[in-house]
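re the bet — no i am not wrong, look at it urself. input seq straight from the record:
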Amino acid sequence: MALIDFALQYAARGWHVFPLRPRSKLPLLSKKEGGRGFHDATTDRQQLEAWWAREPNANIGLATGASGLVVIDVDGPEGLKELEAAARQHGGEWPMPRTLVSRTGRAGGFHLFYQQPAGATIPSSQVKGSHVDIRGSSGYVILPPSIHPSGAVYQWVDLP
């Protein structure tokens, strides 16, 4: 299946997606071209087809907030240790509740996808030196089967 086919399937789920440069994490449409990054994300079939007609190998970005999702980005074994420590410290559930998981392009990395609680605003966070990031009401993640700059393919662990 082509990347556009995956983008259209995600959009049919109500996930707001947009194109990223091939083998990149950067939006396909530059600011000079009027691009607005994850704010361009849509479920509109015609717009998605137009974008992927322009660049069939575009990676797929998911706007988390617009899609009603919160994604925890865990970078390898160090990230898993950080996530466990944070969950235990804050009285959270461990192991974490079962959810949709994808492998990222980073060795041992993965994304955990959760529904954003209704009415909640969950900020995105990225702390230098941390191996765990949150993509909440603003921000985006890369969806399978996009290709990481390293050449590794993003993959679903539990199929959606």
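see?? Residues 69-138+148-156 form one domain. told u. also The radius of gyration is 15 Å. so pay up
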